[in-house]
Specification:
Blueprint lengths: L1 H120 L4 E5 L2 E5 L1 H15 L3 H14 L6 H14 L3 H14 L6 H14 L3 H14 L4 H13 L1
Antiparallel strand pairs: 1-2
Length: 262
């Protein structure tokens, strides 16, 4: 009986051991495969980490280079700004100098223009109005007439007479001529040169019968004739005055003189 039961067990034991060995071997192989995958995953992870680290290093280096480059650019920009400031300061200084020089030139030009204008004004004809008559006269002509008249008004009749005679010779066609003859005749009357006074008063009336001084000139002729004891001539002159200029103040004075002559 004992030998019958042991045989199957002996037979089964090697088979069980073989099976167990296969199982163990199978588990070992499975573990081996799992370790390879893990190692591969770790290697890939390490590679990725290294790649990230490398990228980070490159990025840091690039950033550092960029920062360095920007720093240099900023320094260059600051230097350029300083240079521009210096240039601008120089330009402003030069501009201020030019403005001062321009102001000086403009002032000089203005002074020169004024001087030239003043010089030209001494020669350019000017418009004047004397005794109600408006005309154009040379500055020198105006100056000489006014000078002679100023001397007359001071009472220096002899000097005034000479000045008016010189004026009429120097400016025979002057617009002042009629007035110059009138004042010349009065200067001669004042110096008792009645004949010459009559000549000049008559010249005035003959050349300018409508002149504002004409009635006074005729009255002065009559007065000169009275001074020369020519009552007949004076009466005729005064009568003609009243007829020719009835509305004038001289006509009123002539009537009064005529009344005393009758």
């Amino acid at each position: 009986m004992k030998s019958v039961w042991l045989t199957p067990i002996k037979i089964l034991r090697p088979a069980a051991l073989l099976l167990f060995g296969l199982l163990v071997a199978s588990g070992a192989n499975a573990a081996l495969f799992e370790d390879d995958d893990a190692r591969k995953a770790i290697l890939e992870l390490r590679q990725r980490v290294e790649a990230v680290r490398l990228d980070a290093d490159l990025s840091r280096k690039a950033a550092s280079d960029e920062i360095t480059s920007l720093g240099k650019s900023l320094l260059d920009l600051q230097r350029q700004i300083e240079l521009l400031k210096n240039d601008l300061s120089s330009v402003r200084g030069a501009n201020e100098q030019l403005m001062r020089e321009l102001a000086d030139v403009q002032r000089i030009q203005k002074d020169q223009a004024q001087t030239v204008s003043e010089r030209l004004s001494k020669f350019e004809p000017i418009k004047v109005k004397v005794d109600g008559v408006e005309f154009v006269a040379d500055p020198g002509e105006k100056r000489d007439f006014e000078a002679a008249l100023a001397v007359f008004r001071k009472g220096d009749f002899s000097a005034a007479q000479n000045l008016f005679v010189g004026f009429l010779k120097g400016y025979p066609t002057s617009g002042y001529a009629a007035s110059a003859l009138f004042w010349l005749g009065n200067a001669q009357y004042a110096t008792r040169d009645y004949k010459e006074a009559i000549t000049n008063f008559r010249a005035l009336v003959a050349k300018n019968p409508d002149h504002v001084r004409a009635p006074e000139a005729v009255l002065s002729i009559g007065n000169c004739q009275l001074e020369l004891k020519d009552a007949k001539g004076a009466r005729k002159t005064l009568t003609d005055l009243v007829k020719a200029y009835p509305q004038s103040e001289a006509a009123v004075a002539a009537k009064e003189r005529l009344a005393t002559l009758k």
